[in-house]
Amino acid sequence: MKKIGIIFIIISSLCWTAQGQDYSSKNKKAVKLFEAALQAMDNGKREVAKDKLEQSLKEDPDFMEAHLVMADWLQEAMEYDSKQSGETDFPSAPTYRKEIRKHLLAVVNQRRDFFVPAWLQLGKTDLADGQYDEAIRSYETFLELEKRDAKSRKEAQNGLEASRFRKEALAHPVPFEPKNLGATVNSQYDEYLPSLTVDNKTLVFTRRFPRTANTTANTKEEEDLYMCTWNNGNWGKAVRMPDPVNSTDNEGAQCISQDGRIMFYTACNRPDGGGRCDLYMCVNKGGSWSKPRNLGPDVNSGAWESNPTFSIDGKTLYFVSNRKGGQGGMDIWKTVFENGRWSEPVNLGPEVNSEWDEMSPFIHFDDRTLYFASNRPTGMGGLDLFKATRQDDDSWSQPVNLGYPINTEGDESGLIVSADARTAIYSSNRQRGIGRQDLYSFDLPVAVRPTVTICFQGTVTNAKTGQPVGADIRMTDIRNGVTVANTTSDGKSGTYTVSLPADGKYAFHVSAEGYLMHSQNEVWNREEQQNSSWEPLTVDIALHPIASGERIALNNVFFETGKWEILSESAYELGKVVELLNQNPKLRVELGGHTDNVGKPEANQRLSEQRAKAVYEYLISKGIAAERLSYKGYGETQPVADNGTEEGRAKNRRTEMKVM
User: Fold this and answer.
1) Per-residue model confidence as pLDDT tens digits over 284-306
2) Long-range contact list for 441-445, CB < 8 A, 24+ apart?
3) Which of 404, 463, 543, 596 is the most exposed place for a label (fewest CB within 10 A)?
4) Which domain CATH number covers 501?
């Protein structure tokens, strides 16, 4: 313990300048003992120094310099014991702080400007003890008295912000009733950093346990990835994920894609790594996981990369790194998979990142709500959980603290939220659980919930043979043509899982080589979905092979009522038709217009023909040769549903494409 505290440095610079230094005490014995204490401190004899200081203060209880050096001695002792115990707030820490506060108050209560840094130290002590009113007073007094030291002023401003926030948070606690996920998930070891598929059926997490296998790793504990599934209202027994996902080295800090078929995770100090910790990826094909591969220098650097989270758009990966170019220590970055490679990572900027650390991001299934942990001042202490929302212009909202008692003076991180926007899962060592650190779930307060997400599951098959088809599946916002979610169906089973936010109008497109595309229209109301029970929707899709006589409805081609001008929301659907025709240059099609039976048959016939002609002309304007196209209006003569209901009439009002 040879470190000399800041107060001691300043006091000693005052006290050793000359013999006969003026002290606040006129008691010669007290001064002599004080100077002996300084000499002992300088020689590293800390216990001797403490004894001399105590004797000095017995001689003169108002000796301000002795109080300041004693406060500094106690601060250093507390920091040392904290390191030895491995805990910030070890059992005797409050006793230390009580004594430190006593000595600092003995100074500032005599002369508020005698030693201005005492107010800063007093503020930190009060903040650590949760005495927020006192901390606010101390920080405000320091800022009033100290005008020149920019670094100390910044520290005081941060402390003042933290004190005010914590006082307010404690006065307005949020609902919080965590429930342990149980012995099928948790063990006597540590479980943390969960990730979840969009159907809420598969949970993956990291478990740390004593190392037993021979390995090149130099740690006493091993980290592996574990998985469990939801069955009959309960989580099944967690099992270690098979090789080659896990190895005798450490694997952890993972995320799993919405459909459970792609996983990203963190591994450190691997032979194929680019830095201390790198991101890796593996894919599940037909029930078997591929060998993990390093994401390479496009993503990984010589720094630390970890904590991935993957968007439902099927291409955007967020992660944490301390690489150059960030806002602070650990920052959240993103990279996009385009044209067969990952883009250069981009920092999320000062809206999300700070000069402190940001960790464990989770991008919700709505693809716009980001949860993460940060140790910034607007928190309860340690790492707190925050929420930020991506705006329409791709900027991020000001992060919002999830509140107390979700956040405490300890570290909270690794939070994920279910697709129904109601249930959060995170790891904690605050409760008396099955092990030291367990996974818990709780109902997320309404104010910090994301958008409800609708989950679609089903099978893509050949409409003629019933055989499974590997197809591309996209959910597109028809208002702007942006792909919101993207996945593929499994080539062996045809199964798929995909999701989208329940607050808009979307085009659902399924396409595969050699098949006509499938499209349907989905319109959702956020409020209705938030108030309803949540279950994945089953949508099986039969794709029609490209063959003469086959036809499909273009369900996302829109017109104003009674008119034939194509609305802008139709652009994406018609773009997919252009894509299909370009990929199949020998394909010739007829565009057919259909109506319901409302109105006169002659008017319906004319309307249907004009609408078919409008689509015909649109495709020609996009470069499709006119000889490959024809159009025809069928009016109300070929209904596909009952015209006696609004739902049936809506299905009858359609544009079809028929292979000629």
Assistant:
1) 988 889 999 999 998 999 899 99
2) 441/178, 441/179, 441/181, 442/176, 442/177, 442/178, 442/179, 442/406, 443/175, 443/177, 444/417, 445/174, 445/175, 445/176, 445/402, 445/403, 445/406
3) 463
4) 2.60.40.1120
